[in-house]
Amino acid sequence: MARRWLPLLLVPLLGELWGRAAGWGALGAGDPGQPRVALTFDDGPSPRTPELLAVLARHGVRATFFVTASACAAFPAGLAALEAAGHRLEAHGRWHRHALLLPPGRSGPRCAGIPARGSRGRCCTAPYGGHSPWTRLLVRAARRQVALWDVEGRDWTAADASTLARQTLARVKPGSVILLHDGPAVTPALLDRLLAGLHERGLSAVPLHELPPSASAGGPAGNA
């Protein structure tokens, strides 16, 4: 009996692996011929949000923040500050769990948790970059698109800001989508160094929708 159910269990797993590798139904890097990169943050708002906003304001940069329902409820002042500063708000999920660990009804954008007010967009990112087949189908049905990234700032590791900035800048190219996080203590310093490095290379950091992203050729890697 167990063997009869095995193919049914393997199909979603294989679909997940193939979908992430191919970036099916998702948005990724933008036009490599334009001197722009997209700057995105997952997981916020958080107690770190004011520091990030200060760095962004100092550099005159706007970004895209993929927020969670729980963080919006816990830090409403941070959410209001993001809106007031003109940053783009998108959905990162109501439950910060991998899509394969959620039932289908909890993996779509209706459960994304982005507030009804604010500068909402049409994209969402999945926690840990995990997109199940259900996620992609439900996102498309809601006229949203999954957004991926091609450069991970790795601010969830123990490395210092200078090291992370150097490693990140080494991977950035025109059209890149850069992923950072709203929460780690190292991120404000990393962001400051990263923006300075982008400026030196003649690259402008913009919100994701101003890149704009295109169909992704590959899936994400890392923690989100």
From TrEMBL:
Q: Where is the NodB homology domain?
A: 35-206
SUPFAM superfamilies named among the record's database cross-references: Glycoside hydrolase/deacetylase
Which Gene3D superfamilies does this UniProt record tie to the protein?
Answer: Glycoside hydrolase/deacetylase (3.20.20.370)
Q: Which Pfam families match?
A: Polysacc_deac_1
Name of the featured protein: Polysaccharide deacetylase family protein
Q: Which organism is it from?
A: Deinococcus multiflagellatus
Its lineage opens with: Bacteria, Thermotogati, Deinococcota, Deinococci, Deinococcales
